[in-house]
Amino acid sequence: MGTTASHLGKDLLSEYQELTFLTKQEILLAHKRFAELLTKEEKELPNIRISMERFLDLPELKSNPFRQRICHVFSTSESKDGSLTFEDFLDLLSAFSDSATLEIKSHYAFRIFDFDEDGTLNCGDLEKLVNCLTGETDDTRLTTEEMRQLISNILEESDIDKDGTVNLSEFQHVISRSPDFISSFKIVL
């Protein structure tokens, strides 16, 4: 085994396998990639956190329009700065893995899209979601009327209880009818 495997230890590796949707090889690769983001001094410290800025340099996140929200959702930092521990990183990779269930993937997608973290997708969240997907340049930004119409259409399709927001259950209902969601909601190292 390589040096990254010895840093993890057999027992910890087994525990991570039990607690995630990741294989032994995926966990070892995740550990290697995490270690590559550390300075030499940081590699000696236990339970080190890596700043969100350094994580955003990973090629797998760099082009994702939700990269900052992903870090915030999976970060266990008390300061809410989006920094990630190795275990946070494993949770992230597990939720985005091919083996994760539709329920897990849709739960985390909902949290990522819930920009104001109030437990619902309201008009503000939906506008931010659309802007992330279309880009926020003058060439790609929707007009106010186009945005209003799109959000109205989304709510018409998704807001089952007609309260003006989409809750987790409503979101999961919509996602369950989207066959390519589970295969497109992934990050592979």
Q: Concise description?
A:
The chain is mainly alpha-helical and 189 residues long. It is built from twelve helices and two strands. It is 57% helix and 2% strand.
Structural commentary:
This protein has about 190 residues and is mostly helical. It is built from 12 helices and 2 strands; from the N terminus they run ααααααααβααβαα. The two termini are about 20 Å apart. The longest helix is centred in the last third of the chain and has 15 residues, at about 145-160. The protein has a two-stranded antiparallel ribbon. Helix content is about 55%, strand content about 0%. The chain is globular.
Write the layout of secondary structure elements.
Layout: H1 3-8, H2 10-19, H3 24-36, H4 52-55, H5 59-62, H6 67-74, H7 86-95, H8 102-113, E1 120-121, H9 123-134, H10 144-158, E2 166-167, H11 168-176, H12 181-184
Antiparallel strand pairs: 1-2
Helix pairs in contact: 3-7, 6-8, 8-11
